[in-house]
Predict the structure.
Amino acid sequence: MEPDLDATTLRAWAATIDEGPFSALCWGERIAFDNPDSLTLLGAMAAWTERVELVTTVIVPQLHDPVMCAKALATGDMLSGGRLTVGIGVGGRHEDYRAVGADPKTQTMREMADRVGIMRRVWAGEKITESVLPVGPSPVQHGGPRLLVGTIGPKTVRSAAAWADGLAGITMDLDVAGQNELFDVARHAWAEAGKPAPHLATSFWFALGDKDQAREQVRTHLLRYMNWLPADLVEAIAPTTGWAGDEDELAAVLRSFEAVGTDEIHLIPTSTDIDQLRRAAAVVSDLWSPSCRQHL
């Protein structure tokens, strides 16, 4: 979501992440913005990496034809050798709906679930119409890629237990206790649905360095990224949104999320400076253990 991206920058980040110690590479979706298209980027990331899981956080199915979206994601799963996980959410910006001619009235959990249902049918090889063959290719992963619901709302988490395999959330202020409360909602909803324990992921913006300088980096990023909100509102939340500090402080934050059972943390960059990525990699490498996987 940083400005002036090009293929060289994206490929360098992908290669560095794929080298380790990270286990996943993630990116999100916006339409009325200058970020790369998520589904096109999936093809590039499948080609530019060999090891890491690829996680779309999140795809908004109401912005796509569900059959074409299912075909694109199945293609990405095939090209990556079954390394795809798909975050699904309703999205938070009406401007993205309007940009593609989608009705903002479809920004509902029911509409999202209905479209996920169509995608699941496509991945199962079911004919959606009277075609000679079903829509392919078949995904490498049986039944399609793992699906995570992208939300911070308990109601959406509960409703997603019927179709999702877990949660891909975000913590604005790094409230570990608050995040664990949402995880508990998911744990209980999945148990009531008779499903295995959900995959529990969260994310936050980060900047490494001198605290004041790093905080300014986060602020600059948020003012650009949150351009659909009044600037004075973004200024008000910028001092407490995301994380800024040094390596030891980042390690402490990651440990605090590990302590409440977080399966995965997605670190959201606020700069194209690849040194930020390498410094974060050093922190993750020091913390790596089979029982706690921190991801970017």
Summary: The mean pLDDT is 95.
